[in-house]
Target: 4-hydroxy-tetrahydrodipicolinate reductase
Amino acid sequence: MAKIRVIVNGAKGKMGIETVKAIMAEDDMELVASTDVGDDLSEKIINNKAEVVVDFTVPQAALGNAKKIISAEASAVIGTTGLSNENLKELGSLCAKHKVNCLVAPNFAVGAVLMMKFAAEAVKYLPHAEIIEFHHEKKLDKPSGTAIKTAHLMEKDVPIHSVRLPGLVAHQEVIFGGVGQTLTIRHDSINRESFMPGVILAIRKIKTLKGLVYGLEKIL
Amino acid sequence: MAKIRVIVNGAKGKMGIETVKAIMAEDDMELVASTDVGDDLSEKIINNKAEVVVDFTVPQAALGNAKKIISAEASAVIGTTGLSNENLKELGSLCAKHKVNCLVAPNFAVGAVLMMKFAAEAVKYLPHAEIIEFHHEKKLDKPSGTAIKTAHLMEKDVPIHSVRLPGLVAHQEVIFGGVGQTLTIRHDSINRESFMPGVILAIRKIKTLKGLVYGLEKIL
Amino acid sequence: MAKIRVIVNGAKGKMGIETVKAIMAEDDMELVASTDVGDDLSEKIINNKAEVVVDFTVPQAALGNAKKIISAEASAVIGTTGLSNENLKELGSLCAKHKVNCLVAPNFAVGAVLMMKFAAEAVKYLPHAEIIEFHHEKKLDKPSGTAIKTAHLMEKDVPIHSVRLPGLVAHQEVIFGGVGQTLTIRHDSINRESFMPGVILAIRKIKTLKGLVYGLEKIL
Amino acid sequence: MAKIRVIVNGAKGKMGIETVKAIMAEDDMELVASTDVGDDLSEKIINNKAEVVVDFTVPQAALGNAKKIISAEASAVIGTTGLSNENLKELGSLCAKHKVNCLVAPNFAVGAVLMMKFAAEAVKYLPHAEIIEFHHEKKLDKPSGTAIKTAHLMEKDVPIHSVRLPGLVAHQEVIFGGVGQTLTIRHDSINRESFMPGVILAIRKIKTLKGLVYGLEKIL
Model:
């Protein structure tokens, strides 16, 4: 079977470096180029006959990069945050025009995405819930983006507690309480590698999607 | 709207007592009779125009009770364990003949059932998993029935660890490990009341099922 | 060996009922009377040659009861809250005069007391800490008394998070963070019986104390 | 105040590299040399007027290194495992002769050492306990050395459960069960840096010890 031809854009960034390593460890995909700021992305896609481009760059470049990828008729896996609903709509139309797909995912950790998906489902049966998120003391913002997204998916006003301590990395617990019982869903992430299985899955599945898809949970 | 007419069979047992209390606390259902060993169940169903019968009795009586309920043209919610696959098949045919439904559920704790459902789903993306179940020191059998059922639903050979200590009631943790991350799903049960929301849900939904259904997870 | 002669005062209250049961299950102590509001406590102590009186009554009665017990020359185990520092001083003098002992303990759960003791010790080596306390949704006050006492013993301004959900009873976690590691001390209490081992220990050890002692941790 | 003059022996190993970094980040100590296999350790100690030598080498070199350090009249902090009780005795005599101290510690993670210390204390009041240790799937031996040491310090036959999954690093939970309650002490370690606060503490305190001391817990 032919290997999936992949480009990593933002290949020198922290996520890019991990993505390059992860792709090279897979048998069914081939890294045909790695690009960064200053490279002509469109040209690289066309010259290398890339089928999928993974983008881990910066918020302000996300939309421009996605447009270039789709216009060059490659499917896009966008891990960069910062796209508005309007941007997503625009990308959806562009996908239709060029007959490629685009997956935009703010979180590629399979475990975190499953946690959010299960939380959204559990809340229907056990409506009383609270979230505790635990991060290293250098994370100054609270609550975390994942906690906000989880509460949003649960479609409720869920209390969120933020613990900040050295020795922690990134952890979250969603606790549901019902009569005589509790259900707890917890995700612990200890490093950036935890995002790679999600990225690899996205590269593998993107051809089977239909146009623009938002959230890794849609392909699980 | 007319209330659902319910009979609790095994009303003097520990689960029966809780079920009677739980039904009486709901607005959309009415306890039309409560029965036990020695009562003529068929007669009670017919005389009281019962629509649903909840059975919490003993394994050896489960099949006989279920047949009486269905033959009297009431839908059956069977919480009693001990039914074989063959028994379930027989009940399925009987349901078709009498145009009623039957839900057989070995565990009515919504949280436990969600835990099992999520575990079965998570294992597809994070295939490395172990189960730890924690029970009071008087529970002599190990592993617990819920742990065995969870592993069975995960369709894998999952290592199970059994902790037995005073001060514990009934708890289970399913831990999934992936690169750089873990996902943990935990259920804590502190008393029999934890089963009631599941029983109430079953009473409410049984009319909408089709014939015989096995497992509370099917109606969540 | 002669059994310790014990009276339970407040024997009809929730804690009193458990204490009566617990004492009767021990071989080295004897329940010589159980008293309540309306009984002449001093007379009961003297007539029954009681050596130890356990008091679980109401805050406003705590000081009066303690004085009666000590003046009747029995040692006092006071589980009732509401004594001020001044009250404790007064009781200390009274103990000296009558040559008996008095243990005042706001929390008799051995596990909770150990948690507080360990937290106070751990904070010396791992100074970054946060407390999460989990209680049933009917507990309206937050943070819990145990959380406040724990933070006080740690002699720090420790952030406290309060989770309130059905299905919870009384639980607390103290998390310490250091470089690359965390230490967590957690206590889970599921019922009133959890206080009994502490009460029994107090009855057994009170003869060996010196005058007034505050806190179960002093006799562990 | 004069800085403590320190040598790291085994400075190119994983632990050695971290130790060198940790010492350089402290204001009250100075790294006067770093040595490895092939260096003349005795000469380096004497020439650099080292007061403390930290040894992280290999089991078969531990005794020889410790003897050289003590004979050169520096205090020794030995993190290398492999010393027998007889070896420790011999080092104790050598310390007395040369009027220096030696701390031998198989685990320098302050949190892990506190966990063991608290477990040894808690078991006196809550004698029913079990240990669960969680490690990455590449750790083939089970149970872990820390779990064995914890059980040994608890002076009991404690059941140990070993969980091995990707995404885990090194974690341990000691659960104590009593009537109606449980107490859990858990340590999570995510990297080698977690050992450094313990090493730094040892360097700082070793001058105040008396001869040979075994276990970081003795100086906490």
About this structure: The two ends of chain C are 23 Å apart (CA to CA). DSSP finds seven helices and ten strands in chain C.
